[in-house]
Amino acid sequence: MILEVRNVTRRYRLPRRALLQPPPVLVAVENASLTLERGQTLGIVGESGSGKSTLARMVMAFEAPDEGTIRFDGKDLNRLSSGELRRLRQQFQMVFQDPYGSLDPRRTVGWSIAEPLRVLDAPDAAKRVDEALTQVGLRAADAAKYPHEFSGGQRQRIAIARAIVTRPALLVADEAVSALDVSVQAQILNLLMDLQDELGLAMLFISHDLAVVASICDHLMVMQHGKTLESGPAHSVLAAPSHAYTRSLLTAAGA
Amino acid sequence: MGYFLLRRSVGFVLTLLAVSVVVFAVMNVLPGDPALTILGLDATEDALQALRDQLGLNDPLLIRYWSWITHALVGDFGVSHSFRVPVSDLIAERLPMTISLAVSGMIFTVILALILGIAAAANHRKAGDWGVMFVSQLGIAIPAFWLAMLLVLIFAVNLRWLPPGGFPGWSDPVAAMRALILPTVALALVQSSVLARVTRSSALEVMRQDYVRTARATGFSRQRVLWRHVLPNALVPIVTIVGMQFAALVTGTIVIENVFYLPGLGRLIFQSIANRDLPTVQALVMLFAAIVVTANFIVDLLYLVIDPRLKARA
Amino acid sequence: MTATTVPKAPGLKLPVNLILGAVLVALVIGAAALSLLWTPHDYTAMNVRNKFAAPDATFWLGTDQLGRDLVSQLMVGARNSMAVALAAVLLGGSIGTALGLLAAAIGGWVEDLVMRIADIGFAFPALLFAIMLAAVFGPSLTNAVLAIAFINIPVFARVSRAAANQIWTREYVAAARAAGLNRFAISRDHILPNIAAPVIVQATIEFAVAILAEAALSYLGLGAQPPSPTWGRMLSEAQTLMYQAPQLAIYPGLCIVIAVMGFGLLGDGLRDVTDPRLVRER
Amino acid sequence: ETKLVVGLQQEPTSLDPTADATASIDGMLTQNVYESLTTVAPSGEVLPQLADSWTVSDDGLTYTFKLAQGVKYHDGTDFDSADVLFAFKRAMAEDSTNPSKSIFKPIASVEAPDAGTVVITLKNKDAFFLFNLAQGDASIVAEESVDGNATTPIGTGAFKYDSWTRGDRLTLVKNPDWRHAADVQVDKVEFRFIADAAAAAAALLSDEIDAYPGFPAPEMLPQFESDPRFSVNVGSTEGEVILAMNNSKPPFNNVEVRRAVSTAIDRDEIIEGAMYGVAVPIGSFYPPHGKAYVDLTAVYPHDAEKAKKMFEDAGVAGTTMTLRVPPFAYATRSAEIIQAELKEAGIDAKVENVEWGFWLDEVYKKQNYDMTIIAHTSPNDMGNFAKGPKYFYGYDDAKFNALWDNISTEADETKRNELLKEGQRYLTDQAVHAFLFQMPQISIIKTNVKGFWQSSPVLFQPLAGITVN
Amino acid sequence: MFELDRFSVAFDTATALREASLTISPGDRLGVVGESGSGKTMLALSLMGMAPDAAQVSGRLLIDGNDMASASESEWQRLRARKVAMIFQEPMSALNPLRRVGDTVADPLRIHLNMSNAQAEARALDLFREVGIPNPEARLRQFPHEMSGGQRQRVLIALALACDPALLIADEPTTALDANVKLRITHLLVRLAEQRGMALLFISHDLASVARATKDILVMYGGDIVERGPTQEVLKAPAHPYTRGLLGARPDPAPHQRGADGKRARLPTIPGTVPALHDLAPGCRFSGRCPIERPECATVRPAMRDLGHRSAACHALEVPA
Ligand SMILES: Nc1ncnc2c1ncn2[C@@H]1O[C@H](COP(=O)(O)OP(=O)(O)OP(=O)(O)O)[C@@H](O)[C@H]1O
Ligand SMILES: Nc1ncnc2c1ncn2[C@@H]1O[C@H](COP(=O)(O)OP(=O)(O)OP(=O)(O)O)[C@@H](O)[C@H]1O
Ligand SMILES: [Mg+2]
Ligand SMILES: [Mg+2]
């Protein structure tokens, strides 16, 4: 088991309405649990604001849960020292939603991809960058170019190359294909599947598009308003949804 | 919001406290004897000694600081060493001048900058834009005192439209406003140039936003889109700079008040530093610090007014 | 298959402001550098009886109030003023920017603390600080530079913090965190390059302020010490000669305008060519 | 109503001349708001003021003053000998902060036999006693009002204090109850404080002010001379501008070095460059307009080669000396020229322009300097050289101290003048300092304003005699 | 009523729309699909007279018979909102964050229709009801950040409908929304268009939404219109190889199981990427990626070929059965 999220809750304190009232609290994620095995993909679907990204941020240890634990490869992420955490980070990487915003516009693509390697002081960094670029279907020569010289689909490939360059065990993809059009989206999804087969990646795949999730996930988790509505093997959730919201999503996506 | 206010108030007090410690320390490591400055080169040693006693300069530093700060807490800033009147009176006398100047400078800065900045943005990459960029660059480069001299030469000495300096007070509002025109321009042109550039770039940024396109698609005229949709959204960075500029305008009065012989705080602090008038310098620097902090605070509050989204983040 | 959507390279069409700015800056720096090796006359050589001389073959721009060659004074002044302004802005700018980056990187009470310190810096009259430095170390150009650098610190701290806070919300910063970079590395590798534009613009503004601040300090005997001229000092000394010899104020004034505009235009131009967003737009 | 607007460079911080040395207090208030027992004419002659007349005992030690009758303070209280007694006691007291306490040093006792008479007895003869009594430091203030004088001055003079907007202006109005009120033409006098020379010029040129005595920028005179609206007066002041040397420290404890400095400097060039020709050179420490003046400017004629040789002989050639200069235009400008002149004579002078507080502390109080430039504005101040080694000159010369003793106790004017001449010659011979020039009193006055003094032996300027057309 | 005739939009570095010809009549519901960068938005903006300043426009654009291709900004201002209105892709950023949504909707009513404040507000309320914003009275006074994405999108629709336009352009109105909301918005647009007899130009790369929303479809690739026809027919039996590729790439929501080797089936894709628009190859833009490419494809631009009530531009066109 590569990832284990247990009873995680995350609250945000909202601004006080009045001076003497206690500040209202928004529960962004409530009592969420999930597990993920190597080489498997877990899809998380849910409407906007349902807490998908918050959960992803906690899995990435960008923020800590208020309650519950997140274990990566058996280690509690929030008990690690910052140095240990940094070293462990190469093991879990993330691909973001926005193919434009997730690459530093002032850095060459090669530089950005090599970034996680520099932290490791990897001696064969250049070679691994070339390799990663080839794996995502770009050319080694593209390393010298800047992000604005690429199309949206290509940038998403670059972001994926950066995420896999450390050969992580887990990839978190937060709406990684939502901004892409159908044919590019299909290419990227195929790429992710290729990588999974090749590297034995586990994936946490966040989307609000059921059709996309259906084509790539082994397990599925449906969220609404921070709560987990249902979860289970993808085919059973999709074939026999137990919750009305899931059903409505399915009807909307199908037809 | 309440937490925010509380945090800011604590910050405010701590800032002033730190300022007071620093000023006190600085003024005391400075060479220069207030008594000697007051009594001059021919003073005898016992006269100097007597004056030092009178001014309390012979007490140990900590005692002086303690006595000063405890009095300051109840609003008593002591008696000016050189003017021999309560510092608060001195400040009260001169504050209207400096506030008038700084406020009129601010108004001038903001109005001119918004007009020029928005005009430049509206004519992005056209002659108007280049013109504003060039003029504002020039405005930044022209030394304030040099501009002041030029203005006086033209408008006071040659054309005689406006007085060359001095401030008659607000009892005669027309005269007061006339007296403020030249100093205001000299003081604020630089700030205005800076702000015009900020306005332009921030307006350009906003003009790239989707909602500006929506507004245009709704069939509104360019002017309407600019003033209704672009400007309000461009205000956040503008207001940030304006807050800093208000502080700059207040401190900028030191030079301008000299050139236009205006009875304001700028000249007072200049004199007081030269005279080693600790109570006055101390109170004035605290006042400046209070103005700076308050200006920043007001800016933060303004954000909330300008941008309803930020209310959620305060 | 790597048909990227690189727009056709827009040729070597550099923006006008960059070219003009570079020319003006080169002019000023050139004059300053040249003055180290050569000036038309010894800039200290005075001849009081030949004061306010009109320009001629020997004195290209005439002489000043002590009969010194104006061209030589301006050249040496370029050197001194540039040194003051560049040193003060670089020093104050780097400390201030570092503080701003730190505030944005750590946030919380550290950010509050840094900003309150910046407030103190804002409120503290530079004059007082300059006098203090002069008192402790003696008056000199170096101390003027330090004092001016000091007033620059809070300015840059504010500007860079505001800009840095924005960049911290970008996804590529999150990506860098995911890559295992710590805050300082992120600040260095991502935040700093991406806040360069506002910081450079501020630097060009502060550059002008520094030249003039030196003049104000010189006026009190806290700046450059005679016989070294600075443009600011020349300008303030020419104040009372406005009616008799306006050229003495016009030339240094013009030099200041040229230098400041040069750096300003250069800064604008640099931003235009380095900001990929603006490049894309073009 | 006749109104006179006078520009002043310096704004005082207090309005009490008996507690603060600022010259502008005297310029505005002494002999206008406040009066003293005596006053002084432009020629330096001592005239009666609150004392109608006086007699001096034969031994020169006892002065009996008959006071003017019916005089009232501006607050309505009466003036009589008790006020004189009070004023002197206050100035002479142990804890007195009078800036010119030395004026009162010779006094043994002050008595008031009756309301109209005051008798002052001296310990030793003082040639300047009556002259000194005219100074603002010896103003006769009343016990009832003295505490408020710093802000609301109460005196007996021709003008009453009206208002003071700090940083801007001070207004006096005519005192209709003054003894000679009929002779006063001006109803209101407004002093405007304009420190910046360029601003002052602009104010004059745009008719904002009528007169600016003590105009600080000689370089601007051509502008006013060519303008028919103004008359420009260049008079003298009591201010000797000197290049002071620290006599207590090498190399200036060596008279030859000091002489070399005097030889190295070119007064004409300094006056031309720093004062635009508007100043009279001095060769010693005495004003050229004084009765006892001797012209010693030719004693050390400017000769760079000779000076160089003198420096070489003294073994200081090629050394660096600091010249710490206070922030006054006359000083900083002179410094630049002197620096160049010393360079010609082989001396590297490092000019340090310092701030005034710094100068007072480091140079004046701590004697931490090699050379400096300063104007001594007090009248009859040759006694500075007898102030001993602690004074910032660092000069201590038994011969001169004895000479000054004689001068200050010699009541006979002719003899005293002879002694003063001897003093001048001695100081020049010793080249204690390099004596540069007498500070000019430049006044720019509208042609329709008459009665301003051309030169001034004192710091005050009576306004009673001024007329405005 | 709207007619484009050999209309092109070109930049220094790219041709975003190449000689497009097209008519839109009242009651039409026309979908536009195509890959990112194929010129869909440029087509929409052209109909609004809002092509970027940097663009060079050629050809004719007739609105009610007037050629607007070179019309001035103020002439366009008169047409916008009343003749043609547009809702933009990104509901999160298309609303002025500093204006209450009620004011945003009331603005055009006051400006263009000279309504009083009260009238405008009443009308805005009606519009809010019409587009199905719950609790509309309270919503009028909210700021955009206080609303959900779907609600914001409805506000934008209300804004576009305010002045009763003859043509409503919706540029990817549902991309950012989740499936439920997407569906509801699509139905809303169709209903409104039908009720008002308004023409609808519906741009999307989501084929399912287009299928629901439109009667006819326009397929774009690389600045060219490559195929058009009745939506159902085109989707069922695409004529152009690109259209076929596009349809094939769409994932379907049925669960995909892993194969026997533990691997899952790949989605069909179109190989290669969209060509850069400055590679002004004279021929078919799709050449190089096309599975049925012929030698002439790279050099000769295929003309639109009429296939009864549909048409497509391809040299290798197989007339559909
Ligand atoms: N830093 C924060 N402070 C306060 N509230 C927050 C913060 N971050 C997220 N939230 C709130 O938490 C909830 C969940 O947000 P999250 O970003 O996880 O949603 P999501 O499911 O990713 O939505 P989307 O599909 O729009 O990306 C939202 O209501 C959001 O407003
Ligand atoms: N200002 C501009 N300067 C140069 N080229 C531009 C400009 N605006 C758009 N383009 C180009 O025009 C082409 C068409 O763009 P358009 O926005 O119409 O595409 P689209 O089909 O709407 O794509 P998407 O699905 O991503 O919204 C693109 O290749 C784009 O790069
Ligand atoms: Mg999210
Ligand atoms: Mg588009």
From TrEMBL, chain A:
Write one Pfam family the protein is assigned to. Answer: ABC_tran
The UniProt keywords, alphabetically, are: ATP-binding, Nucleotide-binding, Transport
Highest taxon of source: Bacteria
Query: What CDD domains has UniProt attached to this entry?
Result: ABC_NikE_OppD_transporters
Q: Which residues form the ABC transporter domain?
A: 3-250
InterPro entries (UniProt xref): AAA+_ATPase, ABC_transp_ATP-bind, ABC_transporter-like_ATP-bd, ABC_transporter-like_CS, P-loop_NTPase
* Listed GO MF terms: ATP binding
Return the similarity comment: Belongs to the ABC transporter superfamily.
Q: Spell out the protein name for this chain.
A: ATP-binding cassette domain-containing protein
From TrEMBL, chain B:
Gene3D superfamilies the record matches: MetI-like
Chief location bin: membrane
Q: Which residues form the ABC transmembrane type-1 domain?
A: 95-299
Compartments in which it is found: Cell membrane
Q: Which InterPro entries match?
A: BPD_transp_1_N (IPR045621), MetI-like (IPR000515), MetI-like_sf (IPR035906)
Q: Quick check: keyword Transmembrane helix in the entry?
A: yes
Q: How does it sit in the membrane?
A: Multi-pass membrane protein
**PROSITE patterns reported in the protein's UniProt record:** ABC_TM1
The residues that cross the membrane are 12-30, 99-122, 134-157, 177-198, 234-261, 281-306
Please state the span of the N-terminal signal peptide per the UniProt entry.
none
Q: Which family does it belong to?
A: Belongs to the binding-protein-dependent transport system permease family.
Q: Which PANTHER family match?
A: DIPEPTIDE TRANSPORT SYSTEM PERMEASE PROTEIN DPPB-RELATED
Q: What is this protein called?
A: ABC transporter permease
- Mind giving the lineage of the organism this protein is from? Bacteria, Pseudomonadati, Pseudomonadota, Alphaproteobacteria, Rhodobacterales
TrEMBL record, chain C:
Q: Where is the ABC transmembrane type-1 domain?
A: 78-267
Keyword terms, alphabetized: Cell membrane, Membrane, Transmembrane, Transmembrane helix, Transport
Which regions span the lipid bilayer?
18-39, 83-110, 122-151, 248-267
Q: Which Pfam families match?
A: BPD_transp_1 (PF00528)
Q: What membrane topology was assigned to this protein in its record?
A: Multi-pass membrane protein
InterPro entries the UniProt entry points to: BP-dependent_transpt_permease (IPR050366), MetI-like (IPR000515), MetI-like_sf (IPR035906)
Keyword Transmembrane appears in the UniProt entry: yes
Question: What main location does UniProt list?
Answer: membrane
Q: Where in the cell is it found?
A: Cell membrane
PANTHER family reported in the protein's UniProt record:
OLIGOPEPTIDE TRANSPORT SYSTEM PERMEASE PROTEIN APPC, PEPTIDE ABC TRANSPORTER PERMEASE PROTEIN
Q: Belongs to which family?
A: Belongs to the binding-protein-dependent transport system permease family.
How is this protein named in the record? ABC transporter permease
Q: Which organism is it from?
A: Seohaeicola nanhaiensis
UniProtKB/TrEMBL annotation, chain E:
Q: What region holds the ABC transporter domain?
A: 2-247
The GO terms this record gives for MF are:
ATP binding
Principal localisation: membrane
Q: Does the keyword Membrane apply?
A: yes
Asked whether the UniProt record includes Transport among its keywords, one would answer: yes
Locations of Basic and acidic residues compositional bias? Answer: 253-264
> According to Swiss-Prot or TrEMBL, what is its membrane topology?
Peripheral membrane protein
Which key words are in the record? ATP-binding, Cell membrane, Membrane, Nucleotide-binding, Transport
Q: Where is this region: Disordered?
A: 245-266
Q: Name one Pfam family in it.
A: ABC_tran
Q: InterPro entries from the xrefs?
A: AAA+_ATPase (IPR003593), ABC_Ni/Peptide_Import (IPR050388), ABC_transporter-like_ATP-bd (IPR003439), ABC_transporter-like_CS (IPR017871), Oligopep_ABC_C (IPR013563), P-loop_NTPase (IPR027417)
List the subcellular locations: Cell inner membrane
Which family does the similarity line name?
Belongs to the ABC transporter superfamily.
The protein's name is ABC transporter ATP-binding protein
Source species: Seohaeicola nanhaiensis
